[in-house]
Structures are given as C-alpha cells and as structure tokens.
UniProtKB/TrEMBL annotation:
GO terms for molecular function: heme binding; hydroperoxy icosatetraenoate dehydratase activity; iron ion binding; oxidoreductase activity, acting on paired donors, with incorporation or reduction of molecular oxygen; steroid hydroxylase activity; thromboxane-A synthase activity. It is a multi-pass membrane protein. It comes from the Eukaryota. Gene3D superfamilies: Cytochrome P450 (1.10.630.10). Catalyzes the conversion of prostaglandin H2 (PGH2) to thromboxane A2 (TXA2), a potent inducer of blood vessel constriction and platelet aggregation. Also cleaves PGH2 to 12-hydroxy-heptadecatrienoicacid (12-HHT) and malondialdehyde, which is known to act as a mediator of DNA damage. 12-HHT and malondialdehyde are formed stoichiometrically in the same amounts as TXA2. Additionally, displays dehydratase activity, toward (15S)-hydroperoxy-(5Z,8Z,11Z,13E)-eicosatetraenoate (15(S)-HPETE) producing 15-KETE and 15-HETE. One of its GO terms (cellular component) is endoplasmic reticulum membrane. Belongs to the cytochrome P450 family. This is Thromboxane-A synthase. Keywords: Endoplasmic reticulum, Fatty acid biosynthesis, Fatty acid metabolism, Heme, Iron, Isomerase, Lipid biosynthesis, Lipid metabolism, Lyase, Membrane, Metal-binding, Monooxygenase, Oxidoreductase, Prostaglandin biosynthesis, Prostaglandin metabolism, Transmembrane, Transmembrane helix.
Length: 183
C-alpha cells in the first residue's frame, strides 16, 4: 500500500521500541511521526497498526467515514462486565451509543465544563494559599477529594457543592468520601 512503517522485530514487532526504558510511548510515536510522516505503520507483535497524525484525514475517518471505521481495537480481555461498557462496545451498539454521547462532548459544552473546572481549581489554589500563609498543615488527600467531588457534582450532576470549603459540613462530601466512612 506504500505506507511507510517502523521495521518490526520478528517476535516483538515494534513494541520493544515503545516500551523502552526512560521514554514514554507517546514520545516514541512523536519521534516516528517526525521520521516517517503523519501517516505510518508499526507492529504490535505481528499485528499491523496504522498511525494517523494528519488532522484533516482524522476528521474524514472519525466523522465523514465513521461507518467504515466504527470499531476500535478489541479488548485484550473480553470479560463481563467490561464488554458492555463504552470501552468494550463494538459494531452497531458502539455506533448507537456514540451518537447519543457525541452531543455531550461538543466544543461548546467542553468549553463550559473547562470553565467550571478552572473555577474549582482556582478555589483549590485559594484554599491552599490561605492555609499555607496561616502555617496550617494541608491534608492533600482530602483536599483533592474535595476538588474532585466539586468538579464531578457540578459538571456531571449540575449540583453546586462545598466539598472543598466545608468538608465537615458537606453532606455530599461525607457521603462520597471513603475516608469519612467507618467500617
């Protein structure tokens, strides 16, 4: 087909290069993009894999030609209940779920969610700044739990909570936080 590819090892394919010590797989693929171009292949064991880093081509594949590229690679372990999650869906079921989920992740909605997340992170930084100026210890685990719960509650549940500010008074924090439960 004329697609440039990373020369594979007879047993490992290109995996030995992806799994090198001290370098991330994303860095290796970035190096390959520079070396082979925006469309190239490599091998995972004996299985050929195509990398497409061309944005126009990706748009064609993921939107215009989605019906030809509906499936992702099969899961390594196809066991219950994973095969019924979004990650494990295939064929028509994946297409149906994708069409339901796609509007949720429009650029406008993602920008809105990013604004909420930035607001919550600013709140976190304010709390950390106040505590550090006052010389108070910072309990990092519960601090990040509060941030996580505030973001999830507002982004996913459309609920305003005070999990960061008033953890002891926040019923939502107390119900959700494993550290607040007794066994």
């Amino acid at each position: 087909m004329g697609v440039p590819y990373v020369k594979p090892h007879i047993l490992y394919g290109s995996n030995h290069q992806l799994r090198g010590k001290g370098i991330l797989p994303t860095e290796v693929i970035g190096k390959w993009v520079k070396q082979y171009g925006k469309v190239f292949g490599y091998y995972i064991g004996w299985k050929p894999t195509l990398v497409v880093a061309d944005l126009d081509m990706l748009k064609d594949i993921l939107i215009k030609e989605f019906h030809n590229f509906a499936n992702r690679p099969k899961l390594v372990i196809e066991a219950q209940p994973v095969v019924h999650t979004v990650v494990g869906l295939r064929d028509q079921r994946w297409k149906d779920v994708r069409s339901i989920l796609a509007p949720t992740f429009s650029m406008v909605k993602l920008k809105h969610l990013a604004g909420i997340m930035n607001e919550k992170v600013d709140e976190l930084l304010g709390i950390i700044g106040r505590k550090s100026k006052a010389g108070e210890p910072i309990e990092w685990y519960s601090t990040y739990q509060g941030l996580t719960l505030d973001v999830i509650s507002e982004c996913a549940l459309a609920m305003k909570t005070t999990c960061q500010k008033d953890q002891e008074k926040s019923e939502f924090f107390m119900e959700c936080s494993p550290s607040s439960r007794t066994r």
